[in-house]
Design brief:
Distance between the termini: 27 Å
Order of helices and strands: EHEEHEE
Strand content: 35-45%
Shape: globular
Structural class: alpha+beta
Largest sheet: 5 strands, mixed
Helix content: 10-25%
Length: 93
């Protein structure tokens, strides 16, 4: 694994469940070459982890501020963590 990988742990609040946010996040991450996962939380937020090249990870973090076309994002909080070497991108349940 390259030292050039970064990891962002993201929590997104607003109207982000039931609006294809997870599926669109998965598709956007795969297109950007970012590994990780995304899931709904019981409190109505979406949680995601992005790992990959710094520019691609930042692209995904910025994308989260808008999200899927039907989403209404109120807030995005980001925690920077050490990469764990994730491979692929999945929707978690």
């Amino acid at each position: 694994m390259s030292d050039e990988r970064q990891r962002a742990h993201v929590f997104v609040s607003g109207r982000v469940q039931g609006v294809y946010y997870r599926a669109t996040t998965r598709d956007t991450a795969r297109e950007a070459g970012v590994d990780g996962w995304v899931r709904n939380l019981d409190d109505g937020r979406v949680e995601a982890v992005f790992e990959g090249p710094p520019d691609a990870v930042e692209e995904l973090v910025t994308w989260c501020k808008t999200g899927s076309p039907a989403a209404e994002v109120d807030d995005v909080s980001v925690e920077r963590e050490e990469p764990e070497g994730l491979d692929g991108f999945e929707v978690r349940w």
